[in-house]
């Protein structure tokens, strides 16, 4: 029996048979062949399908709304199911690069109008093909549905190849991740106990994982006993929601206020948790306080220098990470107001000068979602390369992870592209938004399994975990009364799954062998005479050779 990914829900298996132009009367479709299909990017060959080479050319577009429409089989879409929209987009005449959007139209009203559901966008180019990696989920079963490809400026011809809509298969994907997870997060271990131990029994228990989880905190939530309990027992890192941002520490020019940041950092220190420094600057215009906007160019440059000196000197050595200039893919305030494209690199270099041990991050949103042409993985990698070319040392790539109905292959495709930079990746603000807590749990599992299986990812920090204490209201893991909900239990189950508990007997050579997740362990050895020995050791990431742990004289 074929998988759900084998079933294309579009009305016709041949694009040219099911497609129709929509919009202006001048919009026309024609079928062509692409010879260079071997050059097409492929994140996942859906159902074993490779690019056919046949594409539809959408020409004569007089408006951005003009494009291609293809109907979906009646009754093909079900509620509460995540679907992928796949295919490839290129441009013909009219532009070298343009944004092309993919929407789902559902349930025509009496006037023929449909509700549009956003399900993907690409930054298409004339000299190549860009893969569509869209996704959507519906709350109710539609009476009718169709996929629309449109959005480029008027006069730009759009090419569409192998448009497909199909149901995702989470379980099949999780199965594909098993070996990848094993390779990325586990290692063979040989405990050398010595022949003198005889026929001893051994139990190895993992105490801590080398893969950290964390959450956003603020001055209110740390007063909640249920939050503190969950944070203490299940989190390793924290990030401050607003308390370190410039608009919080200097709301009025010259009036510095680090009391809240100090209190949160002291809270983390008491519990033995590390904290990310978020953030030194924020590029989004809406996140810049009024007094900063009122400065002239020279005053702003001086204020930027003072901000770096004040913040980083105060906390040097206390924040292992800094997000230096937040959301540069979406904001340009400092570059535009200072008239200097290289100002972010200056920020990186100055922070590094004052706190050389801190890992300095870029940090942005939508990169893992394939729905934002401003934030593609390619553009993010190019931004990192540009910073490096300006002399900045970038030691971390932050994926904020504000996601809805995520698709594993799409998340993995983004991680693969960013991994090519050679720089570690963190999910820095993860929240999976879904009102139905059962679906939220499923979505969270998708993201966490992809992150944990990918060798480039070094940690996951949530943007809050508790009901009523989060920016996105439908993403909490712990109810207001302290009850861990289904999504939170998914996290706890995965944390348990990703720890090793091995037991057995010492072999004839005095060794005990097992394969375990990276992290800190305790081993209990009980000899035939009942003598017990407790030892600790750490399994670190290494090459394919087993880790030899000599406990004879430990």
Automatic annotation (TrEMBL):
Entries under Gene3D superfamilies matching the protein: Galactose-binding domain-like, Glycosidases
Keyword annotations: Carbohydrate metabolism, Hydrolase, Polysaccharide degradation, Repeat
One family name in Pfam for this protein: CBM_4_9
The UniProt record lists the keyword Kinase: no
InterPro entries assigned to the protein according to its UniProt record, in alphabetical order: CenC_carb-bd, Galactose-bd-like_sf, GH, GH10, GH10_dom
PANTHER family: GH10 DOMAIN-CONTAINING PROTEIN, GLYCOSYL HYDROLASE
Family label: Belongs to the glycosyl hydrolase 10 (cellulase F) family.
The name this protein goes by in its record: GH10 domain-containing protein
Taxonomic lineage from the root: Eukaryota, Viridiplantae, Streptophyta, Embryophyta, Tracheophyta
